[in-house]
């Protein structure tokens, strides 16, 4: 049967791993040692990418390709800052956790609307996802201008860093364990997502919903509900990622591609490279975070005057190289298809 | 936005159109400065104005033209070098319209140019940074790290204008001590504070005491990072210790570019019927076009020898004794 | 009475069920829904915005700054109200026509080219450099123009085509999904162009990242006074639209390209090299993106400057709205062109942020993506039979 | 018309496990089931036969709760039910194994079996995987299934997958098992294995309903057989009291010739010569090793074998979809080993591919465009640049007419046609353009007997006209009836080329399994065996 294609893809995965390892080692060797601060930095840069990637897995595994992750990140980022701002005008006062919560809700609601379009109204998922991105890309600066009279927000407070007791006192690498809560959430989210997808009933249903919805339906599980939950979870994750991005920077910037600046698309790529495995997706996201860290580091320390703009495209080029080796990822076979129960 | 200015009851019957640069209002520096200049003209001369915020460079042409076509607009202010090429053509086409441009030169009788020697102001803040890194100093929200002689520069995009800021800054630091390690990095965007923050984080954690940015909204991240690391930052274009007041405890100084003065002056010349088209105002320290302005929390709180040596360099630059480079060696 | 009603219902039934007509109705309905939602958004946001002269007061809510009808009328005025506005609209239309066709060519072949933007950026740069170079050797008159402009278009097409070929090759031979590769290549194209212009081939004396201005021989002759619009470019676009229609409906090559994109195995069965055809489709699509860049440089900006507007992305919307039908792209690009030039007007005269138009465009695409929405509405209101929908064969 | 079936009304409660009374199911424009009364006795095997589109699947979907009947009632064990979905039906003890398996390929056997009813631990949060494996293993053991609960679905054979489907139903407590065309995808040996499983299940008191197109199987395995035609139940007969001929008549409404009249044909010159050809599959693993044979004008050359023994690769090498690694292929006198697929089409090679929905049709094209598939560069249809749509349309209308494609609508998309009609269209398109060689791979798979008869007749017409025909089929009766010579493939090799009239089905079965039965000797029907090559 499919043993063959399977072994081919494993072979390709092996290739990929090798390519990634070579790239990583080469970078490290060229540009000096890794220290606590660069790891922390890579982790922070990973946060929005990683959450988008993990969220995208839920959605696509359930059968709904969510190309609008970027838009959901924008919604999360904008809502977090707008909530902080709005809260500060109320007697409650600016509360970073409340704002975080509002951002998650806002992004989840947009994801729900997307899910309704895809499930109830059988929208073409890629096109609807694109629409979600475009709408968010227009709406966030539009709303900023309405609220603040300009596309950028005033600055707001962000998260305080927390030290993990014990670990934070370690020599050399202890500083890694002093981090903002979203970073901790991300580190926890990778394994947690893996667990949910691979060890719980819901995880089985998600997989069946994306691979063979009819099988799930005939097994008596409501496929549409599973797909709704999967897609809304992608909104929740992107809400976290976007809010973390904006609250960490303490501002929302709506100019150009907005402050999200393509991170959602990178997240999408990350889970493809990770082949829908949450751990793989997390590592791939971390690879992007790490590459960005290295790229910013190279600019500062290298004597070779490489223009920053060219170093900046390194992650994208690596994605292309990786895609050539990985080729077709094991996309869930029914992702992108409508499913309609026959009764 | 329309309906700016005091409605109807204008003393001088002057209307100004202003087209900002991309990045828009709320950058707490360049565009906001220009806006401040117009607002000052509004309150002092009672003029009216209309403004337009281009989303992309490509919108500028049409915006200039929209204003130029309106008969009641007396002056079109073009904020930023990106206006230059479009203005060259539009100034020729609308030869009856008066224009002003900031940060670039258009050779036409109906355009008045304002350019700034940012490198001179940057030199002073570079010198300040260099002096701070070699001093044990703590005030407000930051303290220096006397162990390392490292300072940083964060750019938006790596263009020749931003390179000029970097060059002046480097020269200022080197003026203090050749051995100071000046780190630079470009975020690749003027709207990515997250990246700005991480660049600055890296610099601070490597031991940098001060980071100067010339990166628009990206700079917000630099301030955020300075605050969380308890180090210093230097603002740009505007006195950012005032415009980004939340960070006034770490913004030790700002390299202010008096775009507001330029805008104000150009309007004034129109109001006073004294518009000198074709002229170029090259504004440096001497002309009070740029300056290093100490942050509001640091006013009078910096060690005297630091302020005095900066004062000294200012004079030397004005006197031509110090020649500030406009390019870095490696570019 | 009832006879009339049932006849009317019958007509509407047929309208709702007929496929091409259905698509047209869905497009129009999407537009209307998006405009209505946009109006709601404008109205509501008017209560948040601050302004000096509110248009409406709602007790308990406050003052509203915007009147949606006024906003839309202003847009209409701004799009068609004067020769200059019309010129602006047609300028946008021309560019959207090309990027829309670029997207449609790929779509027709079953490929989703999100990379038109990157192809346009690099194609435009190639055009600028080529015409700057060639202009030195030609006379400064109409003959020069006849030489220079076609060379510029060719340069844009070649480079854009090359940039489109890359994801085509990656799709055909390495099975890499074109949606991802084209997104990545957009980032890379923008960076490469920026780097080249900023460091090597641009006007290094300028603080802006731009090339020298192209000479008059390389500029499209303008057709409407004081606006940068040329009937030649628009006419060319119309011809290309017809040509693509003929290609896909009348020629063996078009048939084979489509088959390859829709069902690779079946294409091979029919004796076609499906891989090569995927590459061909993407190259053709990229070439059209490159031509859009060429026209942008030679008709609109007269130079290459970083920050090329997002015609490539808008082209996706234009193409989807037209059901990827090359002829349908003609009215949809006019519509989007009008929206764009109208957006400048609402910002100028009413202070409504231009991003509103992006939201409306996104909403249009969202509605277009879900024809079922309208079928359900149609059914609710009693029209249309409940035949299950077959998926739109033309779309991806 | 309706039930002449006494058990429906006559039997007392308990005797009939399933009663469908007056079921009518309408789809827009189609009455799929028309007032069907259908009853199945507990503890029996019941076969349901009928042509494509007769309404068999629909009827069973009603019983399984997938469709709500427009009219009529469902009774299980005498109790009336109104199912709101399959889960209600499952609760009532109904299990269904669909024609297309509903298994998640990326999950394991055990995960598929328990899907939707997973055993859990930790208060329901986590699945208890070891319990799932244990339960699956013990269930498999009880019914004598040989299955590894931890194997992934896409790593096991079709027959094993079918057993997983049965286990799934049993795990949910099914007492009545419905199987939709369960034998269509199985090898003869696997079919026997399935019938053994039926026996085990009946012994455990289960009831089985299965849909089939193969009348012989219905007669062999079922106790009772019901026949549907045009949505109506023609009748239910005990298997012992009927014959293939009678059943076929009930299904089609007229007499059907089950044994083909194969007229003698003039065998002419070799058209296709395959010499020493080896083919590697996509992974580079040898799939065909050193094969020689020739197909002559006016001859049907059959290839029999269990699926996956190199037939597909061999066919692809001949049709130009896959390069052989060594060897030569000659067609109509010219060497075509490396010729392109389109050259071969141009030379007059027609090809009915095995996977019609992937290769022979573009599912999103209407029939008009599909009529052009593969012909687009032939001079009748284009000048190489511009398509001649008029002649294409004429051709397509001809095909639709001649081959009785239903509905006769050239502007309908291919995916809106049933499998049988898709196949008739493909066969028509390929046969009608006067080919000199027809390569037909599984031309009647999933096609009803009326259409099978039709396709067989056409093949023999072509043969009579002197066309060379290479026929690959896993249906033994088909290749035996049609072929003039029959090659048996096993493990990439042609084990023997035999005279189909001179070997028994058992002997063929053994050859297909790679063994040489004693009966087959050089002088018996063998024309040329492998060793002599
Ligand atoms: N979901 C549906 N919607 C509309 N029509 C349907 C649907 N399912 C079946 N039909 C129609 O109902 C009729 C009976 O179809 P059904 O699938 O039950 O036939 P069948 O006897 O199982 O045929 P086959 O032997 O091809 O499997 C056909 O005419 C078919 O077109
Ligand atoms: N959801 C549906 N909507 C409309 N028609 C349908 C639907 N499902 C099936 N049909 C129609 O039912 C008919 C039979 O479909 P079905 O899938 O049962 O064919 P099949 O069993 O594959 O045929 P065959 O047995 O010939 O291979 C076809 O005409 C098909 O178009
Ligand atoms: Mg450097
Ligand atoms: Mg069926």
UniProtKB/TrEMBL annotation, chain A:
It comes from the Archaea. One of its GO terms (molecular function) is transmembrane transporter activity. The keyword Cell membrane applies. It is a multi-pass membrane protein. GO terms for cellular component: plasma membrane. It is found in: Cell membrane. The chain crosses the membrane at residues 12-32, 38-59, 71-90, 96-119, 126-148, 176-197, 268-288, 308-326. Its main location: membrane. Keywords: Cell membrane, Membrane, Transmembrane, Transmembrane helix. This is Ribose ABC transporter permease.
Automatic annotation (TrEMBL), chain C:
It holds the Pfam family BPD_transp_2. It is a multi-pass membrane protein. One of its GO terms (molecular function) is transmembrane transporter activity. The keyword S-adenosyl-L-methionine does not apply. InterPro entries: ABC_transp_permease (IPR001851). It comes from the Archaea. Signal peptide: none annotated. It is found in: Cell membrane. The keyword Kinase does not apply. GO terms for cellular component: plasma membrane. CDD domains: TM_PBP1_transp_TpRbsC_like (cd06580). Keywords: Cell membrane, Membrane, Transmembrane, Transmembrane helix. It comes from Halostagnicola larsenii XH-48. This is Ribose ABC transporter permease. The chain crosses the membrane at residues 24-49, 94-114, 120-138, 145-166, 178-197, 229-248, 278-299, 311-339.
TrEMBL record, chain D:
It holds the Pfam family ABC_tran. It is found in: Cell membrane. The keyword Transport applies. It is a peripheral membrane protein. It comes from the Archaea. InterPro entries: AAA+_ATPase (IPR003593), ABC_carbohydrate_import_ATPase (IPR050107), ABC_transporter-like_ATP-bd (IPR003439), ABC_transporter-like_CS (IPR017871), P-loop_NTPase (IPR027417). Residues 18-255, 272-516 form the ABC transporter domain. One of its GO terms (cellular component) is plasma membrane. Keywords: ATP-binding, Cell membrane, Membrane, Nucleotide-binding, Repeat, Translocase, Transport. CDD domains: ABC_Carb_Monos_I, ABC_Carb_Monos_II. GO terms for molecular function: ATP binding; ATP hydrolysis activity. SMART domains: AAA (SM00382). The keyword Transport applies. PANTHER family: CARBOHYDRATE TRANSPORT ATP-BINDING PROTEIN MG119-RELATED, GALACTOFURANOSE TRANSPORTER ATP-BINDING PROTEIN YTFR. This is Heme ABC transporter ATP-binding protein.
């Amino acid at each position: 049967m499919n043993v063959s294609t399977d072994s081919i893809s494993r072979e390709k995965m092996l290739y990929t791993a090798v390519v990634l390892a070579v790239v990583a080692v080469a970078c490290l060797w060229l540009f000096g040692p890794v220290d606590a601060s660069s790891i922390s930095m890579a982790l922070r840069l990973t946060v929005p990418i990683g959450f988008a990637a993990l969220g995208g897995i839920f959605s696509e595994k359930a059968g709904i390709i969510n190309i609008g992750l970027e838009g959901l990140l924008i919604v999360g980022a904008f809502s977090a800052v707008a909530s902080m701002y709005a809260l500060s005008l109320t007697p409650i006062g600016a509360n970073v956790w409340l704002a975080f919560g509002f951002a998650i809700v806002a992004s989840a609601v947009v994801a729900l609307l997307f899910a309704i379009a895809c499930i109830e109204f059988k929208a073409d998922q890629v096109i609807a996802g694109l629409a979600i991105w475009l709408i968010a890309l227009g709406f966030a600066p539009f709303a900023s201008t309405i609220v603040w009279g300009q596309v950028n927000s005033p600055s707001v407070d962000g998260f305080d860093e927390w030290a993990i007791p014990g670990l934070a006192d370690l020599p050399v690498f202890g500083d890694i364990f002093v981090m903002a809560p979203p970073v901790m959430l991300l580190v926890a989210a990778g394994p947690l997502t893996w667990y949910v997808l691979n060890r719980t009933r819901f995880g089985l249903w998600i997989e069946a919903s994306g691979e063979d919805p009819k099988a799930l339906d005939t097994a008596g599980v409501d496929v549409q509900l599973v797909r709704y939950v999967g897609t809304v979870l992608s909104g929740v994750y992107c809400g976290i990622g976007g809010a973390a991005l904006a609250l960490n920077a303490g501002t929302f910037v709506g100019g150009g591609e907005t402050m999200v600046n393509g991170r959602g698309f990178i997240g999408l790529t990350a889970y493809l490279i990770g082949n829908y495995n949450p751990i793989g997706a997390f590592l791939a996201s971390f690879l992007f975070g790490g590459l960005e860290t290295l790229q910013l580091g190279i600019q500062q320390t290298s004597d070779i005057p490489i223009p920053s703009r060219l170093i900046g495209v390194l992650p994208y080029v690596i994605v292309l190289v990786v895609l050539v080796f990985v080729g077709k990822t094991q996309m869930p076979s029914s992702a992108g298809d409508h499913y309609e129960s026959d009764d | 936005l329309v309906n700016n200015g005091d409605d109807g009851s204008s003393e001088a019957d002057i209307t100004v159109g202003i087209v900002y640069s991309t990045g828009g209002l709320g950058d707490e520096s360049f565009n906001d400065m220009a806006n401040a200049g117009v607002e000052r003209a509004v309150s002092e001369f009672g003029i009216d104005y209309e403004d337009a915020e281009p989303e992309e460079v490509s919108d500028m042409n049409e915006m200039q033209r929209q204003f130029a076509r309106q008969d009641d607009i007396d002056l079109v202010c073009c904020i930023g070098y990106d206006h230059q090429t479009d203005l060259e053509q539009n100034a020729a086409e609308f030869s009856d319209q008066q224009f002003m441009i900031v940060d670039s030169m258009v050779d036409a009788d109906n355009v008045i140019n304002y350019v700034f020697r940012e490198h001179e102001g940057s030199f002073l803040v570079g010198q300040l940074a260099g002096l701070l890194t070699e001093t044990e100093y703590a005030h407000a929200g930051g303290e220096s790290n006397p162990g390392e002689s490292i300072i940083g520069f964060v750019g938006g995009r790596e263009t020749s204008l931003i390179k000029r800021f970097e060059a002046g800054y480097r020269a200022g630091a080197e003026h203090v001590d050749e051995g100071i390690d000046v780190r630079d990095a470009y975020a690749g965007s003027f709207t990515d504070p997250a990246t700005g923050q991480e660049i600055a984080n890296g610099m601070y954690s490597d031991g940098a005491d001060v980071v100067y940015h010339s990166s628009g909204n990206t700079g917000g991240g630099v301030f955020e990072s300075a605050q969380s690391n308890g180090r210093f930052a230097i603002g740009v274009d505007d006195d950012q210790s005032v415009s980004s007041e939340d960070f006034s405890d770490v913004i030790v100084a700002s390299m202010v570019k008096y775009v507001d003065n330029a805008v104000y002056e150009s309007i004034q010349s129109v109001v006073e019927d004294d518009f000198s088209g074709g002229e170029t105002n090259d504004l440096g320290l001497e002309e009070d076009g740029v300056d290093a302005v100490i942050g509001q929390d640091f006013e009078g709180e910096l060690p005297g020898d630091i302020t005095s040596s900066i004062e000294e360099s200012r004079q030397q630059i004005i006197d031509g004794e110090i020649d500030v480079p406009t390019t870095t060696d490696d570019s | 009475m009832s006879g009339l009603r049932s006849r009317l219902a019958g007509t509407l039934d047929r309208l709702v069920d007929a496929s091409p007509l259905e698509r047209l109705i869905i497009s129009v309905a999407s537009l209307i829904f998006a405009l209505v939602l946009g109006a709601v958004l404008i109205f509501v946001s008017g209560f948040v915005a601050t302004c000096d002269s509110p248009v409406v007061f709602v007790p308990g809510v406050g003052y509203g700054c915007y009147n949606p009808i006024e906003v839309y009328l202003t847009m209409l005025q701004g799009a068609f109200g004067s020769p200059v506005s019309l010129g602006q609209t047609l300028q946008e239309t021309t560019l959207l026509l090309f990027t829309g066709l670029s997207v449609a060519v790929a779509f027709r072949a079953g490929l989703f080219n999100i990379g038109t933007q990157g192809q346009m950026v690099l194609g435009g740069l190639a055009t600028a450099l080529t015409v700057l170079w060639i202009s030195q050797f030609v006379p400064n008159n109409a003959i020069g123009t006849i030489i220079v402009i076609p060379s510029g278009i060719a340069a844009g097409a070649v480079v854009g085509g090359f940039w489109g070929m890359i994801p085509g090759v990656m799709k055909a031979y390495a099975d890499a999904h074109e949606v991802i590769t084209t997104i990545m290549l957009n980032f890379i194209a923008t960076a490469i162009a920026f780097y080249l212009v900023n460091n090597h081939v641009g006007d290094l004396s300028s603080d802006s990242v731009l090339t020298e201005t192209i000479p008059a021989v390389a500029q499209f002759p303008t057709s409407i006074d004081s606006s940068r619009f040329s009937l030649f470019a628009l006419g060319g676009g119309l011809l290309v639209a017809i040509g693509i229609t003929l290609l896909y409906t009348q020629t063996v090559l078009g048939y084979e390209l489509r088959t390859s994109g829709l069902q690779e195995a079946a294409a091979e069965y029919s004796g076609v090299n499906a891989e090569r055809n995927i590459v061909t489709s993407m190259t053709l699509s990229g070439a059209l993106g490159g031509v859009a860049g060429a026209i942008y440089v030679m008709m609109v900006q007269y130079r290459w400057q970083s920050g090329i507007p997002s015609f490539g992305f808008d082209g996706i919307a234009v193409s989807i709205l037209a059901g990827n039908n090359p002829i349908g792209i003609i009215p949809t690009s006019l519509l989007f062109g009008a929206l764009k030039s109208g957006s400048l007007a609402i910002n100028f005269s009413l202070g409504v942020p231009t991003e509103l138009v992006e939201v409306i465009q996104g909403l249009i695409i969202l509605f277009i993506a879900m024809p079922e929405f309208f079928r359900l509405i149609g059914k609710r209101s009693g029209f249309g039979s409940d035949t299950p929908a077959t998926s739109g064969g033309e779309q991806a | 018309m309706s039930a002449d079936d006494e058990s429906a009304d006559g039997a007392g409660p308990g005797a009939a496990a399933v009663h469908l009374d007056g079921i009518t199911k309408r789809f827009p424009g189609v009455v799929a089931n028309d007032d069907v009364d259908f009853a199945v006795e507990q503890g029996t095997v019941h076969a349901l036969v009928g042509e494509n589109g007769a309404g068999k699947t629909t009827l069973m979907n009603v019983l399984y709760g997938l469709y709500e009947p427009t009219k009529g009632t469902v009774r299980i064990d005498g109790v009336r039910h109104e199912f709101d979905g399959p889960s209600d039906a499952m609760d009532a003890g109904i299990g269904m194994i669909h024609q297309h398996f509903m298994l998640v390929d990326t999950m394991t056997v055990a995960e598929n079996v328990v899907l939707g009813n997973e055993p859990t631990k930790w208060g329901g949060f986590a699945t208890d995987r070891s319990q799932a494996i244990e339960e699956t293993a013990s269930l498999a053991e009880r019914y004598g299934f040989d299955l590894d609960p931890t194997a992934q679905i896409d790593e096991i054979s079709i027959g094993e997958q079918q057993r997983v489907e049965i286990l799934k139903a049993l795990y949910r407590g099914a007492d009545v098992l419905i199987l939709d065309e369960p034998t269509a995808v199985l090898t003869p040996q696997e079919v026997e294995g399935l019938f053994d499983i039926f026996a085990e299940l009946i012994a455990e008191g289960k009831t089985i309903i299965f849909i089939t197109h193969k009348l012989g199987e219905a007669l062999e395995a079922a106790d009772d057989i019901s026949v549907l035609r045009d949505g109506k139940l023609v009748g239910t007969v005990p298997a012992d009291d009927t014959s293939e001929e009678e059943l076929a008549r009930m299904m089609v409404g007229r007499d059907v010739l089950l044994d083909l009249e194969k007229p003698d044909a003039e065998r002419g010159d070799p058209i296709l010569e395959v010499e020493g050809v080896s083919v590697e599959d996509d992974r580079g693993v040898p799939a065909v090793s050193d094969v020689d044979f020739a197909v002559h004008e006016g001859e049907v050359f059959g290839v029999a074998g269990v699926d996956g023994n190199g037939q597909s690769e061999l066919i692809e090498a001949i049709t130009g979809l896959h390069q052989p690694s060594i060897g030569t292929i000659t067609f109509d006198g010219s060497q075509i080993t490396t010729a392109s697929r389109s050259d071969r089409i141009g030379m007059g090679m027609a090809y009915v591919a095995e996977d019609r929905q992937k290769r022979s049709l573009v599912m999103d094209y209407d029939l008009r465009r599909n009529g052009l598939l593969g012909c687009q560069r032939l001079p009748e249809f284009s000048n190489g640049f511009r398509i001649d749509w008029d002649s294409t349309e004429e051709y397509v209308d001809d095909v639709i007419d001649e081959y009785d494609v239903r509905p006769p609508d050239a502007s309908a998309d291919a995916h809106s046609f049933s499998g049988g009609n898709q196949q008739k269209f493909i066969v028509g398109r390929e046969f009608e353009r006067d080919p000199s060689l027809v390569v037909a791979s599984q031309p009647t798979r999933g096609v009803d007997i009326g259409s099978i008869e039709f396709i067989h007749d056409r093949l023999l017409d072509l043969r009579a006209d002197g066309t060379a025909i290479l026929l690959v089929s896993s249906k033994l009766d088909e290749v035996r009836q049609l072929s003039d010579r029959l090659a048996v493939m096993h493990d990439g090799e042609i084990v023997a080329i035999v005279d189909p009239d001179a070997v028994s089905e058992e002997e063929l079965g053994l050859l297909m399994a790679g063994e040489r039965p004693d009966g087959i000797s050089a002088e018996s029907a063998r024309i040329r065996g492998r060793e002599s090559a």
